[in-house]
Amino acid sequence: MKRALVMLLLILSIGGPAPAAAAEFDHHHRGWNALLQRHVVWVNGGVASQVDYDGFSRDRAALEDYLNTLSQVSPAEFSGWSAPRRLAFLINAYNAFTVSLILTKYPALSSIKDLGSLFRSPWKKPFFTLLGAQRSLDAVEHGMIRKPGDYDDPRIHMAVNCAAIGCPALRNEAYRADVLSAQLDDAVARYLKDRSRNRYRPDSRTIEAGKIFDWYAEDFEKGYQGIFSLKQFFARNAALLTENPTYRQVIGSQAAHIAFTAYDWRLNRQPAP
Length: 273
Prior knowledge:
Helices cover 41% and strands 9% of the residues. It is mainly alpha-helical. It has one domain.
């Protein structure tokens, strides 16, 4: 009996300790949230934001640590999450990898478009690993976030940020599953209140809207919350486009025309002090 016990202990010692369980993913995205709190500020009354890329450069190691946590998530783990957790993960990944891309050439660039070439845009360049494969920003936005049948939520266009002034603001906090819908509603409100990008012209009864509504009009026509057109979307949000009750009535009745404002591709950087 004693000899058998000794042999059992010997076998167990040869096998070594059991592997440690993988750390659970942080669905509060605390690492990214801390970086955003430090390096993103609201401007123009909170309808736009500016990014301190110099600060992000100083915190490059912390950013890389967060990006590594994203890259370590397996497809199987991801597929087991709820839809809000998956969507928050993808939005944060898109925004964080965009900042990382800017830092590869910062400060020697004035626009994210400077990182592209005649043959390939910066959004089509695979430069990071996510869910077990090399990905580009387009692969995340168009192949995953906008994939038909997965989320079908047009509000995401006010959440993903392309590092340009014309883009809806980069939020100064991470997107989180437990408050995701409220965060997306807030992103829509902030963007539509920005008169440099969205406004109503009473003389021509025209809504002059951000270019993203032109590029992604189809996403606002798929029936999200009973909305099947841009006019319906603006009617639902007339109070965010103007404070004038008469103008709101025109927009709300879907009688307003729609035109699109020019897109400002300059970097959304915080000016030097």
